[in-house]
Amino acid sequence: MRVGLIINPIAGAGGPLALHGSDAYQAGAELPAWAAQRAEEALRALMVSCQPEWVCGAGAMGEDLLYALGIKPKVLGRRCWPSSAQQTHEIAEQMLAQDLTLLLFVGGDGTARDVLDAVGEALPVLGIPAGVKLQSACFGVSPRAAGTLAASYLSSHARVSESREVLDLDEGALGQGRVQAQLYGQLRVPVDAKRLLQGRKSRSEAGDAVDAAQLAASLLPQLRQGLHLIGPGSTTWALKKALKLDGSLIGVDVVLDGALWLRDATEAQLWELARQRQPRLWLTAIGGQGHVLGRGNAPLSPRVLQALGRAALTLLITPRKLQALGGVPLRVDCGSAAVDALYAGPVRAMTGPREQAMLRLVAA
Amino acid sequence: MENISAHRFTDGKPNLRRYQQARWDEPLIFELSQPGERAILLPELEPGMESATHDALQQLPTGMRRATAPALPELSQNRVLRHYLRLSQENLGADLNVDVGQGTCTMKYNPKINEQVARDARMSELHPLQDESTVQGILQVMHAMEQVICEVSGMDAVSLQPRSGSQAIYANIAMMRAWFESRGEGEQRDEIITTIFSHPSDAACAKVLGYKVITLYPDADGYPDLDAMKAAVGPRTAALIITNPEDTGIFNPRIAEFVAAAHAVGALACYDQANANGLLGITRAREAGFDLCHFNLHKTFATPHACGGPAVGACAVTAELAPFLPRPRVVKEAGERYRIDQGEAQSIGKVAAFMGTASIVLRAYAWVMNLGAEGLREVAEIAVLNNNYMMSQLLKIEGLSAPYAAGKRRIEQVRYSWAELCAATGVSSGDIGLRAADYGTHYWTSHHPYVVPEPATIEPTEAYSRADLDEFVQIMARVAQEARSTPELVLTAPHHCPTKRVKDEYLEDPKRWAITWRAWQRKLAEHGSAV
Q: Could you say which of A15, A62, A63, B298 has the lowest number of CB atoms within 10 Å?
């Protein structure tokens, strides 16, 4: 049994810089560790019960990690840095001829689209979440979950897979103030009986905007005073709209006494603020997926979250969004198990004026 | 189409019915109106009568007299009767269909003898302003019914004044607020905790009374999350209001721990007993530690539902909360005499005029006295048996599931999910309900939000026979089969009913509907043919 592995080594690197993707990331001499770390978490979970033969991309695209884990893989392509989407595409294409049982890729929505272009539905694939944007329905809810799902798929006799959506941010809708994903196609993904796969991000419905606006209006008195970090998403954007701010739909904005102080702040800027002052943090969950941390809000790094503390968090979620989650728990997957544990547990979420829901944040 | 002879009990079980609802193309009654036409012609006044009575209208204060006569339809009596009989035939009424699909409403047979009792002149001709010495009979009945509710709930005092279940919930929350105010904690305690599968009126009434509402969601097994409850309570908590079993039909075995968590922070615990039909004579609010509860007489106690007639919600409380009950109250005095007491100063006051709906109390009392204590318990046992039999049959249908608590029995209802069928065929639970009407049965999905995807709530009470239940199961199985073989048939249903599918967006657009003739005329004038 052979398993393929493609790591997009710069996946997630743009997040802390508030770049909303890593295409614009200017690679330095040093390799970012994030994607390899996420891949390692997944592989360790997989290898608890499964020892397949490995086929991987050269160098940082898989070879280095597998060697570090004591595995000698078959290597495709040539070592080169920085890597590009073109390389992901080429290696994925070569994977088609490798008689694979499953192809694992490490990255975000952009990587999923590269894999989709090369592989289509010819091969079962599974995404290990490491990108900045993770709206597609082909990723595990966390690297560990992806590894566990891969192992159970590989060790089952039936090996049932299903088609799930590949989505990426719709830039056109973003310009009109809506966070909306565009559908690019489908990948064949192992069938998940234990909710280890994240759902595709669901679109916010029109009625949702009304609910969010009512909720935002009821919170205005609190927002007009003090320092606030307001995260991305259409629900939290209602806060920015209620304050009449030219805020970012997909970034973390800093608001001081009701005025926009920093739009689309970087991790470094948030770290300074979190260390020196005591801002409140306003977040929502991603519709359809339930992630509160670790999806689309990369500037909120583990050290920023640690400094802010759990008490700073106010969670907003509209009733329709909650309903669309269909009992999926809210998840935190910020990249540090310790910080995830700090934020995990029962949480009060604002769902409307004078309405709250007691929900549970779970470390993914 | 199958042979019609195959539609009746050919193998000891009912087969699918061929059903066609009447369709009358009946105009609105205002459109039938003919100027000058009358149902009843009153005789001319005899000479002398007019001078004896003078002009009665002149005795009314000027400000209360209409300047113009009301614009009522003018029809002969037989045309009025034909009109309403035809409309009634275009309806899936309670006495026409097996309405177990109207789950969580506790549809059960309303025995006709109780209607006869309530329509007896000794009840129907009473007036609430009569002197209490002349209404001793109904006061005795109301007092006795309060004792019945005390016994069923374990509580100390009862008010039958609220005219609906939601009004009883409102009254209970108002009592809790008054109780906290009497202790100087009214301002501090501004939060009420409930669960997403509890009766939705619990959250709604709390909000109307100014409280913040905190909703608990189910854990993986479908029980309300106890850890979330413990995390939610605090010095601001006024009360827990919870239904048990919830609308999933799952009984919360840790209910006493929820009550204890509320009491631990000085909050009250209020039991919404909208789903009490499977619990009569088996569990009681008092033993679970609750301070207040309410029952819907139109559900559990077999009186007609509201919307089809006035209802009664019964509030039951501990002695500590009794001074806050709505007033007036019925008080028993020495010598079997009953008195209408204006109640305590701490009372929350009136939630309905006079004593509430006395004739409904009489119907419920007649039902209870017919059954006796053992009979009430048997009601619960049969309701639970029917529900679990039905669940075993319904879950044989491919594409239908009962989320949560897999393998466990339910109490008196189940919230099912058609999510699998919907994913496979595109046919939603709402579509199934519309197609079920083609087989002559009523069906309801669930309250919003749909926490259970593509929900259906089925509650077969004690009033239905096994043959009734089998018939309903067959209808569901047939519609599910149609969803796979001929989905268009289901997606365009109903086909055998007088009203075709109404687009939801029309219902959301006030320009497109009116509930009175006058509003319809006005909207027609304003919006023209778009209506």
A: A63
Subunit contact B216:A358, Cβ cutoff 8 A: yes
Query: In this structure, which amino acid lies at residue A281?
Result: L
Interface test with A, best of B193, B214, B230, B504 (most A CBs within 10 A): B214
Q: Would you tell me the crossing angle of helices A34-46 and A143-155 to the nearest 10 degrees?
A: 40
Segment among A107-111, A207-211, B374-378 with least mean pLDDT: A207-211
DSSP state of B406: T
Domain positions in chain B are 23-60+70-90, 134-352
Statement: residue B6 has pLDDT above 70: no
Burial class of residue A178, CB neighbours in 10 A (0-12, 13-18, 19+): middle
| Cβ of residue A164 closer than 8 Å to a chain B Cβ | no
A242: left (phi over 0), alpha (psi -120 to 50) or beta: alpha
On chain A, the residues whose CB falls within 8 A of the CB of B453 are 326
pLDDT at A205 over 60: no
Choosing among 3.40.190.10, 3.90.1150.30, 3.40.50.2000, 3.40.640.10, the CATH entry for B134-352 is 3.40.640.10
Q: What is the CATH number of domain A2-190?
A: 3.40.1280
DSSP B424-487: HH---HHHHHHHHHHTT--B---SSS-SSSSEEEE---TT--HHHHHHHHHHHHHHHHHHHH-H
pLDDT at site A156: 78
pLDDT over 70 percentage in chain A: 90
pLDDT digits (tens, 9 = 90+) for B353-392: 999 999 999 999 999 999 999 999 999 999 999 999 999 9
Amino acid sitting at position A135: Q
User: pTM, whole model, 2 decimals?
Assistant: 0.80
**Residue B424 zone, left/alpha/beta (φ > 0; ψ -120 to 50; rest):** alpha
| pLDDT for B11 | 55
Q: Is the peptide bond before B245 cis (omega within 30 degrees of 0)?
A: yes
Model confidence band, residue B313 (pLDDT cutoffs 50, 70, 90): very high
Across the interface, do B217 and A356 touch by the CB < 8 Å criterion? no
What gap in Å lies between CA B224 and CA B43, rounded to an integer?
Answer: 67
How far is Cα B278 from Cα B490, in angstroms, rounded to an integer? 33
The two three-digit tokens of residue B418, written as one number: 């058609």
Domain layout of chain A by residue ranges: 2-190, 206-363
Q: Which of A315, A298, A300, A309 is nearest to A361 (CA)?
A: A315
Instruction: Judge residue B93's burial from the number of C-beta atoms within 10 Å of its C-beta, 0-12 exposed, 13-18 middle, 19 or more buried.
Output: exposed
Contact B456, B432 (CB under 8 A): yes
Are A91 and A79 a contacting pair, CB within 8 Å?
no
Beta-carbon contacts of residue B515 (< 8 Å; ≥ 6 apart)? none
B228 in reach of chain A (CB within 8 A):
yes
Radius of gyration of chain A measured on its C-alpha atoms: 20
Nearest to A265 by CA among A278, A247, A280: A247
Whole-complex ipTM: 0.78
Cα B473 off chain centre by: 24
Residue from the list A327, A345, A348 with its beta carbon closest to the beta carbon of B214: A348
